[in-house]
């Protein structure tokens, strides 16, 4: 293996340009790549190991502190999750899963979120990195903390969802709230950050802001009108997007919205979920961002100079995920990385060009300038309702947008989408609001009676009923069906979507499996389709 220290051209410091380098703590546990969701499952923890290999071989270890965090305990996880749910995760395993049929249904463990060997240890590693990163930020041990194994934003208080079991983001934010009066959470995953939004839906101490695909798309939440409840009213910010958004379009809304939030909310710490399924060509995504377009969000948030927790998230084309997160690690550390991928143990997967780049494709951008501008203006209007930070003089909140105005914007959001939301009609939406106004709800911050779970029917923890909830893997299934149909028309056999196992003696052949024995890591088996 060639280490980047033998080739200084792999990175170039930006300190010569006068920028003050920031102290970066980077969390990585080598065991994370040993876990495997199962054959054909798009979530592959090996992507974290691939990213780390790039980080090390680019020489970034010389510019930051690298830690292996202590795995989170059951007690620490229970700061947010229910004891019953955490206990279930700690006890269930594939060998005895048939003994937990009732619990699997209750906790939404199954197809999208399967039981696999080492499930609880996997969750502990993910959560431990985010909690320790937040703790080090709060103790002023670093300026930026990175945990690419974190960012699992769909997990709910008492159930799994969207490949996520433990919500490390919520646990990290709770740690930050011990020292910081206000925390801003930003989510650039292609999917709505529903689990984090739900956790803080009734408080003004956390503002959540999610830029995501909205429509008939997992998890089915995150519409513009979802702004919070009780004390948290207008502290949830959702920017629903359409397919094919480009770097230019994304930047045109991301930077103004975040700038306005910073002006009004004035957080003292920021958590940025860097889901890479918003990159062009992702298996489960539908956006068209380049690596640099995605990274520009990281760079912009970093520019505010606040304590920053960078987390992973979605991303299912592994070579692109590892490229993006390695590049963003370099941004955090103040290093401009070479476009040529250094030799590393996963080098063969970055061919044929071996470049540190993810380029956009030719898909159509359905996000018109009119659409983006109208959503942005409404979000700005919502922000005017929020109370300024204590150090800023108060202001008179403007009038609340009327039903007709919000309906018009909702119709604009859905324009161009084939499917309608479960509350498709204006009459039904008005009835929903009338029910809400009749005093049926309370300002409770609990998940019990009167909380958001009751308000928008979080019977399954994601705002949709069991029958209407989409699967996060639906885009992949549709593409497989289309490929099968095309192959049938051509008279050729369709691919099953799985790839040829790695040959013996490959670069990954010496990694450790989840059972502790020698051999190829389980997550590596299906890498060739990434």
UniProtKB/TrEMBL annotation:
Main location: nucleus
GO molecular function, one term: histone deacetylase activity, hydrolytic mechanism
Protein localization: Nucleus
Domain of life from the UniProt record: Eukaryota
UniProt biased composition (Basic and acidic residues): 414-430, 449-458
Record's compositionally biased regions (Low complexity): 483-513
Keywords: Chromatin regulator, Hydrolase, Nucleus, Repressor, Transcription, Transcription regulation
One Pfam family this sequence matches: Hist_deacetyl
Enzyme Commission code: 3.5.1.98
Biological process terms in GO annotation: heterochromatin formation
Region (Disordered) residue spans: 414-530
Domain Histone deacetylase intervals: 41-329
Gene Ontology CC terms, in alphabetical order: Rpd3L-Expanded complex; Rpd3S complex
UniProt record similarity statement: Belongs to the histone deacetylase family. HD Type 1 subfamily.
The protein, known as: histone deacetylase
Species of the source: Jaminaea rosea
